[in-house]
Design a protein that fits this description.
Order of helices and strands: HHEHEEEHEEHEHEHEHHHHHEHEEHHH
Mean pLDDT: 79
Largest sheet: 9 strands, mixed
CATH architecture of the largest domain: 3-Layer(aba) Sandwich
Number of strands: 12
Low-confidence stretches: 1-25, 482-495
Distance between the termini: 81 Å
CATH superfamily of the largest domain: P-loop containing nucleotide triphosphate hydrolases
Helix content: 25-40%
Strand content: 5-15%
Number of helices: 16
CATH topology of the largest domain: Rossmann fold
CATH class of the largest domain: Alpha Beta
Shape: extended
Length: 579
């Protein structure tokens, strides 16, 4: 009786003739290459989603072994940086010698002000903000497979240190012990690998889904990684490669939960069962038999089983020989014989190539239509630009540059223009002087105020406040309040109050307030600071701390001053450019 593997046929929106399909199959390399080129141009957005394969899974589910088996390279397996950013691998068959070109592919910029904060719905990737395009930086080119693993690790460190020059992380220069600036990045390390006998494939290895972190301060990483995986898996043309280890219960997979929670994702998913050689010997294969025949956890493209040697020193060729021997045992050739065409990495490579080709063919009509639509919109925007100058462009550019230089001189120096005889705009220096004077006023008006209740207390505290700690003392008027006159006593109408006069020329420092130091606070300070055995002698550190408290607000005032200066200069320069 034939066994259903849960495969779903992918057919193009517009049927393709058999002859044309055969020609396209023969030219699979060019087909995948074109999609890769479109991706590297940064053409993808919310409307144009290119076909791709994404490998997802929990940590320690055999994802690294799967990647090594498909790509025939060694990747970092240690916990940490290698799991904290995506890895894009593009494979293509070539008659030339083996080559690997590594790029740093950036689609997001890092905002340090949002670091270590839980992501929000409006900001699913937390401190990472979308660029709106793609920036690819060449990192290194390799011609030896043995160098790939170390180079990937260096490239990942470059991605995880967005504020540092990436060239500082080239192999041989990088400090591998230095902790990275960030623990996670949605930007990818891209590998373009070409060589003889390679499958024509393109796929993304996404960070392993985690349910908890070692440090409480890193709990935000759980949601960041999950949101990144959701972003890829939810794309309509994405083929999902879900790894599940045969060492435990398939119901415990967080990655599988994510896939099943996204509408339509399960139908685009192919499951890969890993670590079959580590299956507990005292447990039956009933669960995995039901998964393979589609009775449980059915996926659109069924399941494959692969076995890889965990020893990273074993070559790809040797690992494939060991895998072939493993699946030739009686368990796999007799009990699970109905699924023999789904055992082994080679079978998986062939299936993925076929799936990707059919996905590309099925997506081509919509991709072409969306690109044409986008191209038309760009052409319409270009039509709104003025016609290019017909005169001497060099002379026009020189004249405009000279005019801008003159305007900037007027802003900074107040020099009147030759053509109009006088500058109508107030120079930048005059405006900035007002900000400087306001800063001086704010420094004086925000000094701490000593608030006491009686003049006698002021005299008692004279020994506490020395000449180095300058404070304003606010006394309390102890005179007897005058009796309030009743309306019958002939009081006149009260005079209207005069508007409060501002102390500043600008509004930048209006919200600055002074702090009050109470009598009780100083009394406690005096008691705590008395030097043992020396009457009326205070610890000098108490006075020093009081002095520091008097100026601790200066940093905030200086920040206001710098922002006001930047805003003034920026605004005037923009105005000069727009004139």
């Amino acid at each position: 009786m034939p066994v259903s593997h849960g495969l779903r046929d992918i057919t193009p929106v517009h049927p393709i003739p058999v002859a044309a399909l055969d020609n396209l199959t023969m030219d699979m390399k060019n087909l995948v290459k074109k999609i890769q080129d479109l991706s590297h141009l940064g053409i993808e957005d919310s409307k144009i989603m290119l076909p791709k394969i994404c490998v997802v899974g929990d940590q320690s589910t055999g994802k690294s072994s799967l990647i090594e088996g498909i790509s025939e390279i060694k990747v970092p397996r240690s916990e940490g940086t290698c799991t904290r950013c995506p890895l894009e691998i593009n494979l293509s068959e070539s008659d030339d010698t083996w080559k690997c070109v590594i790029h740093l592919s950036r689609r997001y910029i890092f905002d340090p002000s949002k670091q270590m904060k839980m992501p929000k719905k409006s900001e699913p990737l937390g401190p990472w903000v979308a660029l709106g395009g793609q920036d690819d930086e060449h990192f290194i080119t390799l011609d030896n497979k043995q160098d790939v693993k170390g180079a990937i690790l260096c490239a990942q460190l470059a991605i995880l240190n967005p504020s540092t020059n990436s060239q500082d992380f080239l192999p041989g220069l990088a400090d591998m012990e230095q902790p990275p600036q960030v623990k996670f990045s949605p930007n990818a390390v891209r590998l373009d690998i070409s060589g003889s006998g390679l499958p024509n494939l393109s796929f993304y290895d996404l960070p392993g889904v985690i349910s908890q972190t070692e440090q409480d301060t890193e709990r935000y990483l759980v949601n960041l990684v999950e949101n990144l995986v959701k972003d890829y898996v939810s794309q309509e043309h994405c083929i999902v490669l879900l790894t599940l280890p045969m060492t435990g219960d398939a119901t415990n997979s967080s990655a599988a939960r994510i896939v099943r929670g996204i509408k339509g994702a399960k139908e685009r998913t192919l499951g890969v069962l890993t670590k079959p050689d580590r299956h507990p010997p005292d447990e039956t294969f009933d669960q995995w038999h039901e998964i393979l025949d589609g009775s449980k956890f059915k996926l659109g493209h069924g399941y494959y089983v692969i076995r890889n040697n965990p020893n990273s020193l074993v070559s790809h060729t040797q690992a494939r020989k060991e895998e072939e021997i493993f699946f030739s045992s009686s368990l796999w050739t007799r009990d699970l014989a109905a699924f023999h065409d789904r055992f082994g990495t080679t079978q998986l490579q062939t299936a993925l190539s076929d799936l990707l080709m059919r996905q590309i063919l099925g997506s081509l009509p919509s991709i072409i239509a969306q690109i044409d639509k986008k191209s038309k919109a760009i052409d319409e925007e270009l039509q709104t630009l003025p016609n290019p100058p017909t005169e001497d462009v060099q002379r026009i550019l020189w004249a405009k540059t000279s005019d801008l230089e003159r305007k900037i001189h007027e802003l900074f120096d107040g020099t009147p223009g030759i053509d109009n005889g006088s500058s109508q705009r107030k120079p930048l220096q005059e405006q900035w002087n007002k900000i400087v004077m306001d800063l001086q006023t704010a420094l004086a008006k925000t000094r701490p105020i000593l608030d006491v209740a009686a003049q006698k207390d002021n005299e008692d505290l004279a020994e506490v406040v020395d000449s180095d700690c300058e404070m304003k003392i606010v006394g309390v008027n102890m005179s007897t309040p005058k009796k309030r006159k009743s309306p019958a006593s002939g009081t006149s109408m009260s005079e209207p109050s005069t508007p409060r006069r501002t102390l500043y020329s600008t509004s930048h420092f209006e919200g600055s307030k002074y702090t009050r130091i109470s009598l009780q606070q100083l009394t406690e300070l005096k008691i705590r600071s008395n030097t043992v055995g020396v009457p009326n002698q205070l610890d000098p550190r108490a006075i020093e701390n009081l002095n520091k408290r008097s100026v601790e607000h200066w940093g905030k005032l200086m920040e206001i001053f710098l922002k006001a200066t930047h805003s003034l200069v920026h605004g005037m320069l923009i105005e000069a450019l727009e004139e």
